[in-house]
Design brief:
Blueprint lengths: L1 H27 L10 H5 L5 H14 L23 H7 L7 H26 L2 H12 L2 H9 L3 H14 L2 H10 L7 H6 L3 H21 L1 H11 L17 H7 L1
């Protein structure tokens, strides 16, 4: 038993050391070690292009413009279109005291903190070889490293959702829903588990922070709809052959 624990500990330490080296590469190099491995790193503008979409939207809001506007702001170096709820850009104004790349590296640190919490929760629940495998998979997860490079938000929403499911803390579910909409899909499971109040509260918070804004800014509502569910003539708006999301499935149908 002691030998197994020693071997498990050594494996996890090696995975952790490799994880740290990869994260440092992503955070400090324009072409990190993972650069040749992903379509987005090779063919998309980056690093941090997804993160800069929120930075740009927050700059726009602070200067009285629509967060969905795509015009240059004189601060953000480059950015993808902003597709999130207005509340995300409003919260993003807290980071505008930092330069774009400093804010991006702060976001990497926050994602690393969420990863650490998720690993801790998994460590408490898993046992034996499954514990070692789970921790190493989380540390060396290639999509996660791509998320760091692009400054994306899917892992953050997923980690918050997992934290809510594993701790029964509703606040994590609410934050996950505000960051991205897809955690609402877990609402069915939460209701069946007797946590319907948490789902109801998340919907109320989302409505309070979203409906009044869109009611007062109908152009932003149309922009949000066009960016997320609109299908222009031809295959456009992100609905391309490499997109396997629900929106593209509905487009094909």
């Amino acid at each position: 038993m002691e030998r197994r624990r020693l071997i498990s500990g050594l494996i996890i330490l090696m995975c952790l050391a490799l994880h740290v080296a990869l994260v440092v590469s992503v955070a400090t190099q324009s072409r990190p070690v993972i650069w040749p491995l992903h379509n987005d790193t090779i063919h998309r503008e980056g690093p941090a292009a997804d993160f800069f979409s929120i930075y740009h939207a927050s700059v726009n809001l602070s200067e009285g413009r629509s967060p969905y506007g795509f015009e240059e702001d004189g601060r953000t170096p480059y950015f993808f279109p902003y597709r999130y709820m207005p509340v995300v850009a409003q919260a993003g104004r807290l980071m505008l005291g930092l330069s774009p790349f400093a804010a991006y590296r702060a976001w990497i640190l926050l994602l690393e903190a969420l990863l650490a919490v998720l690993i801790f929760l998994v460590w408490r629940r898993a046992t034996g070889w499954l514990r070692t495998l789970s921790v190493c998979l989380l540390l060396l997860n290639s999509p996660y490293l791509l998320e760091l490079y692009m400054g994306q938000f899917t892992f953050a929403a997923t980690a918050l959702l997992a934290m809510s499911l594993l701790t029964s803390a509703c606040v994590f579910f609410i934050l996950a829903v505000l960051l991205k909409m897809y955690p609402l899909a877990a609402g069915v499971a939460l209701v069946r588990a007797g946590r319907w109040r948490c789902v109801a509260l998340a919907l109320v918070v989302l409505a309070v922070l979203t409906v009044p804004y869109f009611a007062a800014n109908l152009d932003d509502l149309r922009a949000f709809r066009a960016l997320n569910v609109g299908v222009p003539p031809g295959v456009a708006g992100g609905l391309h052959s490499g997109n396997y999301g629900l929106a593209y499935l509905l487009y094909l149908l």
